[in-house]
Design goal:
The structure holds two protein chains of two kinds.
Chain A: E1 7-9, H1 14-24, E2 28-31, H2 37-42, E3 50-53, E4 63-66, E5 69-73, H3 78-83, H4 85-90, H5 92-97, H6 104-109, H7 112-118, H8 124-131, E6 135-140, E7 143-148, H9 149-152, E8 153-155, E9 158-159, E10 166-173, E11 180-186, E12 196-203, E13 208-214, E14 221-222, H10 224-231, H11 239-249, H12 260-274
Parallel strand pairs in A: 1-3, 2-3
Antiparallel strand pairs in A: 4-5, 5-10, 6-7, 6-10, 8-9, 11-12, 12-13, 13-14
Helix pairs in contact in A: 10-11, 11-12
Chain B: E1 5-11, E2 14-20, H1 26-33, E3 52-55, E4 58-61, E5 74-76, H2 78-84, H3 88-96, H4 106-118, H5 125-131, H6 143-158
Parallel strand pairs in B: 1-5
Antiparallel strand pairs in B: 1-2, 3-4, 3-5
The chains are: A alpha+beta, B alpha+beta.
Chain lengths: ~280, ~160
């Protein structure tokens, strides 16, 4: 189908964009990469009276190191993040996750901010941001606030974004020396949304770790009991031990990709495979 | 309400000026207003890859971009690739290996493949499959398409 008619705004400054969002509130949809918004418009799942295109705002796609953080602008395209030397240097988790995101042509347009604001529970980047303790910088005409990834994702396609707010930047703390990172997922075909996926890091010296699953709940989900197992730094436990932890940690509902039992099985296998590298 | 907007851009090197409705996507604009029907429209929600074109050198889904967003951009379609002539070898490899049957996916498949080939070297068959994974072909089973791209890459690397 074709999208329903809408009025189009293309602000050239962040202030103009915030003004547009303040004026139109929930009557406006923000157009970033458009790789999810455009299908939703075409299916008429969304029929916003206004579309605010933020692609022409300069400076929103910067990737730079700022002290002990990496700052990634919300408009940074997946392909740009994937190819960035600072990402390769500090965040093998992201470098491993990016090729799983859809396909080459989608990665040329899709943005980090768009993926996070859509908050699809089976998407790679929300899970990575939760795993990495990213902080999201939100701007509105009322000012700015920072929200931790753990507070930003609030459910199926639900985020902490208030009407009039725009995600402008993500701050990811640089990992401690000696951190290990693994990203892996199962999907039916290359580029499909994951049946189950795992964004993980560990810091063996301090016996800390983070295991965040995607596609296994209504939002990216930490597996706390599995983390406790991993932090004990034993060789890979037997399947039943890992599965018991996963069963306690994850409560996925069936989706188009897989049944809950399958998802918990795949989550366990992902942990088995990642364990030797963590 | 929803007045049309002026749009100026380059399509295959030719300056184009038009009026577009904001809701019109780039694929419809290219087909209906510019008259370039080589860009095919399959699923219209970004899954099939038949509408793949290049915008400022990057491969994009023309159904997932509004025409108005191409303001000031250089858009290249399969017709532009043809005029430029730099893909004759890939075209011939597609023919020689029966890498097309109905041909509906072919323009998108070729546009996608050219971006990989431009990176140079000899991508593995697995790399080729990953690169064209967003382009559906319902006829060939892909093997012949991978063959054609693989052959073109090897031949280019050897010359």
């Amino acid at each position: 189908m074709k999208p329903a008619a809408f009025d189009y705004l293309c602000p050239r400054t962040l202030d103009d964009a915030l003004q547009a969002l303040a004026s139109h509130g929930d009557q406006a949809s923000v157009l970033a990469g458009g790789q999810s918004l455009m299908p939703m418009l075409s299916f008429r799942l969304l029929e916003p009276p206004w579309v605010v295109d933020i692609n022409r705002i300069p400076g929103l796609d910067q990737i730079q190191q700022d002290g002990a953080s990496l700052r990634i602008g919300a408009l940074a395209r997946h392909a740009q993040v994937m190819a960035h030397p600072l990402v390769a240097q500090h965040f093998p988790l992201l470098a491993q996750a990016m090729p799983h995101i859809a396909h080459a042509a989608i990665r040329e347009r899709g943005t980090l901010g768009g993926s996070l604001c859509l908050a699809d529970p089976a998407a790679e980047l929300p899970a990575c941001m939760l795993a990495l303790d990213a902080r999201l910088l939100l701007r509105s005409q009322q000012g700015a606030r920072e929200v931790a990834a753990a507070d930003f994702f609030q459910g199926l396609y639900q985020t902490a974004l208030a009407p009039g707010e725009l995600l402008v930047e993500v701050h990811i703390p640089l990992p401690e020396a000696g951190s290990q990172m693994v990203f892996d997922e199962f999907s039916r075909r290359h580029g499909d949304y994951a049946m189950a996926g795992l964004a993980a890091w560990s810091h063996p010296a301090s016996q800390r770790s983070r295991l965040v699953y995607l596609g296994c709940g209504d939002r990216p989900t930490r597996a706390l009991r599995a983390e406790a197992l991993l932090n004990a730094r034993t060789p890979v436990p037997e399947y039943p031990t890992l599965r018991a932890a996963i069963d306690a940690d994850l409560h996925p509902e069936a989706d188009l990709q897989a049944q809950p039992d399958t998802k918990r099985h795949l989550a366990t296998v992902l942990l088995q495979r990642a364990w030797p590298h963590l | 309400m929803n007045p049309s907007h002026p749009l100026s851009l380059h399509v295959n090197g030719v300056a184009v000026q038009a009026q577009v409705e904001p809701r019109q996507h780039l694929a419809d604009f290219l087909r209906e207003q510019v008259g370039l029907t080589g860009t095919h429209l399959g699923c219209e929600y970004g899954v099939c890859g038949a509408c793949t074109v290049r915008v400022d050198g990057r491969i994009v889904r023309a159904c997932l971009m509004l025409a108005i967003q191409a303001q000031g951009c250089d858009v290249q379609t399969i017709e532009g690739l043809d005029a430029q002539g730099g893909f004759r070898d890939l075209q011939q490899a597609f023919v020689a290996r029966n890498a097309l049957q109905c041909g509906f996916c072919t323009p998108g498949m070729v546009m996608c493949a050219t971006a990989l080939l431009e990176q140079g070297g000899c991508p593995s068959r697995s790399d080729i499959r990953a690169h064209i994974s967003g382009n559906y072909c319902r006829c060939t089973g892909y093997e012949a398409i991978v063959d054609a791209i693989d052959h073109t890459a090897r031949t280019r690397a050897a010359t």
